[in-house]
Amino acid sequence: MSRREGSLEDPQADSSVSLLPHLEAKIRQTHSLAHLLTKYAEQLLQEYVQHQGDPFGLPGFSPPRLPVAGLSAPAPSHAGLPLPERLRLDAAALAALPPLLDAVRRRQAELNPRAPRLLRHLEDAARQVRALGAALETVLAALGAAAHGPRPEPPATATAATAATATAAGVFPAKVLGLRVCGLYREWVSRTEGDLSQLVPGGPA
Amino acid sequence: MMDIYLPLKRPSWLVDNKRMRTTSDFQWLLSTFVLLYLMNHVNSQRKETPYDLKCTTNNLQKWDCSWKAPSGASRGTLYEFCIDDRSHSCYHLARTNIEIPALSPGDHEITISLQDAGSSTSKFILNEKNISLIPDTPEILNLSADFSTSTLHVKWNDKGSVFPRHSNVIWEIKILWKKSMELVKLVTHNTTLNGKDTVHHWSWVSDLPLECAIHYVGIRCYVDNLLFSGHKEWSDWSPLKNISWTPDSQPKVFPQDKVILVGSNITFCCVSQEKVLSAQIGSTYCPLIHLDGENVAIKVHNISVSENSGTNVVFMIEDNVCGTVVFAGYPPDTPKKLNCETHDLKEIICSWDPGRSTGLVGPRNTSYKLFEGFSGKYVRFKKVDVSANESYHQLLLQMVPNQEIYNFTLYARNPLGRSESTILVNITEKVYPYTPTSLKVKDINSTAVILSWHLPGSFGKINLLCQIEINKINSVQESRNVTIKGVENSSYRIAVGKLNPYTVYTFRICCSTETFWKWSKWSNKKQHLTTEAIPSNGPDTWREWSSDGKNLIIYWKPLPISEANGKILSYNVSCSSDEETQSLSEILDPQHKAEIQLNKNDYIISVVAKNSVGASPPSKIASMEIPHDDVKTEQAVGMGKGILLTWHHNPNMTCDYVIKWCNSSRSEPCLMDWRKVPSNSTEALIESDQFRPGVRYKFFLYGCRNQGYQLLRSIIGYIKELAPTVAPNFTVEDTSADSILVKWEDIPVEELRGFLRGYLFYFEKGERDTSKMRGLESGRSDIKVKNITDISQKTLRIADLQGKTSYHLVLQAYTDGGLGPEKSMFVVTKENSVGLIIAILIPVAVAVIVGVVTSILCYRKREWIKETFYPDIPNPENCKALQFQKSVCEGSGALKTLEMNPCTPNNVEVLETRSTFPKIEDTEIISPVAECPEDSSDAEPENHVVVSYCPPIIEEEIPNPGGDEAGGTSQVIYIDVQSMYQPQARPEEEQEKDPVGGAGYKPQMHLPINSTVEDIAAEGDLDKTAGYRPQANVNTWHLVSPDSPRSTDSNSEIVSFGSPCSINSRQFLIPPKDEDSPQSSGGGWSFTNFFQNKPND
């Protein structure tokens, strides 16, 4: 990109504006966390698939990307949004993920009680994505963009309802939902990393 | 169908018709015709009266009879229905059926007549046998379904109250599915009628989930009353009832999350509004079974055990996937090895082996319940995440006060089944105590301590059995069992005695109950040092006089720990005799030696060891040394680590024996260590860490008698012998032409490292540079070895050597430990002068003898020679061309053989006298006339083997008139006297080549002796050798030695003596000795070699 994406609210759009050192450090830290979680999310997805049995993980098997209440996949138009808007969407999605990941972990604790590594990774993922969301909120607040922009939907209640529904629906839908949640976790963390990278000084223009 | 008795009986022939039917076809056709006629006749009659009376019953109490009206009867026709029984009851009715009470068994005549036409009467015989029992059509009261279990529940009423008596009923239920109503199942269900209406239930589990397709259910019955003799029939089918499921808009798969037994068959279906493309279980695709609409099903046979998260069953729909998970596993195995015990008599722990894995985890895992029968208490066990390798489960149950006997039942249950196991225990006999803790040790005295520990539990009513393990360093482990009374406060203590003072002990303890079940685990170890006590014995003592004999050196050994009973602080030494006492006190440890100046009196030396508690009993030894006889020093070799010394029993030795030893290289007094052995011993194995292999030690055996010691034996020995480290230093004392005298020195004891067993002496011919490289490999034949086992021998003469030859000498010493290093030397023997002299003298003498004999022969045969070789010839004085000076033969120094004068030559004719004797000296050979061409090289072929002599033309003195004129040329023939010795055989080429190449004298004639062919050849050669031969070459007039350079160079075996007069010329051959002669071996042959007998020596 020849110039940074974003609107007038984009603090990086005006190159003359320089970030405060502590904010810059926070952005870097948040970006590093997002980068780290991107790798963790990929590992978690692979490990999750590994424990669900065939045909999960078999080539050619791709369950439909069912909508998850309270959390949608990043829209194709996400990249075209102003950077603060994108970050707000990222933060909202990150806030919606922990209860979903917790629900997945609880279900997997019943299905795979002898897979402590998977359970630990799911627990870690919920905690880490919560930390990433908080860090992103901090960055947004520092940039003065936190209060702006609508949140897509109140995440906590919707995701909790989704988790309960998945639990009641049966094992197979719960497996599919877990797969979907892990996929969304990966997508949103990756998206957050990409969006944050545009804030990092020296990042992609 | 019941039989109706008609007024017109069937003719009997009709009955017999069958018998006749086989007679002929004609008869059969005729009978058929008659039968048809009669039937028609009967029917025509029947239709005129009521007919076809049929009676049925549905409850056995009433019969429902009906008949058909005659053809002329109208709807309102009245009938009289009479039963000819005792009461002869008749019924008037305007219909064709009637319900009558059930008639008693037997035939009953029934008369049905039309009341308005008296002639139309029909009579029937009615019997129960002709009655059909047809139950009423049953009705399904309720049809319900449990979709989770795919179970249909059917409920109906048997209406048993209408039946007067007990009857068996068979119900037939049919299950139909799909809209096409395909029969799935047809089952029978037996019940009994008990006179009351009873609602019956029947359930059926469908293979296909009920959600997958609509299911219909119908029922009918069959009353099997044994007392009823009539015909029984099934009732009609009840109206069908169905069960169906209202699908959602989303596709769904059934059954959902089902748990099934491994190996079962199961059907899955997908209820969908859209077309299902495929289905798979796990990774295996399955064929689709199409149901109503787009619904499909798959059948899975013999399902295998699922993984933890279950087996996925997935149906692929366009743009969607739906699925379910099935959990295939096993019912719980019977709990094995159920065992209940207690650690503390407060809580009971029951453990068991769950047996075969169920393959089910999480909420489907096996749950256990432990139930105690006497108290009615129970506890549950539910562990969701039991790891696969956790083989034992356990449950805790609080003990019931004052209850000792417990009856436990363990129930196991999972979705696939249940099992149980029981055990009856007396819990006081199943005590497995906790591990004792807080083990402490407290001293009582130097040999006893108190052990205390903590053992939790309410053992007040029982005794405990405890095992104390006592470990002492470098000692055997000791275990002691003690029984102690159990207490409620968990604190225990006992005394442990029989310990050693000042000893480090390690204690640990474990306990059980007196009614042994299991030992507890060992407590932690506790180390303790007991207090000191006085030393139990005095130190082991020895004494030696100093080398000057003035001082007595007293040695003692430190007390072993077991005797020291504490840390030894010092020693007291005292020497007492009748006259005086000398003491040395407070000799601090670790000094273990004291020296006291004493005279030669007999003293008793006393040594006492002291520790912080007190002094040991004194250890005494006499200073007296009993004189001994001459003691020969013996040799002994040990066994690697020690050395065994033996001796004969000596009854005089009443105290003990002492063996002392030292390194032999040490100076006196020599003492490394000593050892005392009882007086009844005859052997002792002396071992010491100080012993080193290859070191010579001295051992002295002393016997003790009357408190004095007498030397009995003196032994030198090695613990292990090794090979010497150095070679013996040797020199050559004397050298002659055939021998060498070698002398060597002893090897020092320190470097010998064993008892010397001998020397190995090697020698071989060889120069310094060559032999060094070859070494002394065994088996080489050219090496001579002498094994000198007499170790006192210090010289060796090596004889039979060759003179003037270099020898390589090597000397090695050896012990039983092996060969030492070698020392080598090169020696050259002297030349043999006597042989040289003999080698010179013998040829000279032979030459002289030959010369003398030749001279004598020539002298005695001078007339014959003269006639043969020098017949009368013209006086040369008459010829000026040839003038021989007479002084030539008279020894004139100036030699002038031929003088060519320009004169007319005479012909010289030699008379030939051919002898008939074969002897060579009598052979006369006429030499052909020799011509002397001016240029012989042109005239003769290249291979001309004889060089013709051409006299030089001395122009100053004798002008040459022209050699071409043959007629003026004198011809002189020279004849050699051939020796009897034949030259050695040589190759032809060599024989031909040598004369050409040789520059010396050549014999003019070659006279073979016994070869005719060669004679001929020789004669041929004679033609070629024509010409002048110089009779003498003064330079060759000396004895040619075979070893002279010329001789060796020319290789000619022919040695000739020539005379300038050509009269007594002789040729001598010194025959070669043989092939192996030194001459043939190359240069350097000498007369010394000529006399050499041994080729190598």
Automatic annotation (TrEMBL), chain B:
* Protein location: Cell membrane
Q: Which family does it belong to?
A: Belongs to the type I cytokine receptor family. Type 2 subfamily.
The answer to whether UniProt assigns keyword Zinc to this entry is no
User: What membrane topology does the annotation report for this chain?
Assistant: Single-pass type I membrane protein
Annotated protein name in UniProt: Leukemia inhibitory factor receptor
Assembly, per entry = Heterodimer composed of LIFR and IL6ST. The heterodimer formed by LIFR and IL6ST interacts with the complex formed by CNTF and CNTFR.
Entry keyword annotation includes Transmembrane helix = yes
InterPro entries found in the cross-reference section = FN3_dom (IPR003961), FN3_sf (IPR036116), Hematopoietin_rcpt_Gp130_CS (IPR003529), Ig-like_fold (IPR013783), LIF-R-like_Ig-like (IPR048497), LIFR_D2 (IPR040817), LIFR_N (IPR040901), Type-I_Cytokine_Rcpt (IPR050379)
Q: Which species does the entry assign this protein to?
A: Microcebus murinus (Gray mouse lemur)
Region described as Disordered:
982-1002, 1066-1097
Q: Which residues form a coiled coil?
A: none
Q: What does this protein do?
A: Signal-transducing molecule. May have a common pathway with IL6ST. The soluble form inhibits the biological activity of LIF by blocking its binding to receptors on target cells.
Say where the protein is mainly found: membrane
- List each copy of the Fibronectin type-III domain by range: 331-434, 435-534, 538-629
Polar residues composition-biased segments: 1086-1097
Q: Name one GO cellular component term.
A: external side of plasma membrane
- Membrane spanning residue stretches: 834-859
**What keywords appear on the UniProt entry?**
Cell membrane, Disulfide bond, Glycoprotein, Membrane, Phosphoprotein, Receptor, Repeat, Signal, Transmembrane, Transmembrane helix
UniProt GO BP: positive regulation of cell population proliferation
Q: GO molecular-function annotation terms?
A: ciliary neurotrophic factor receptor binding; cytokine binding; growth factor binding; leukemia inhibitory factor receptor activity; oncostatin-M receptor activity
What's one Pfam family the UniProt record gives for this protein?
A: LIF-R_Ig-like
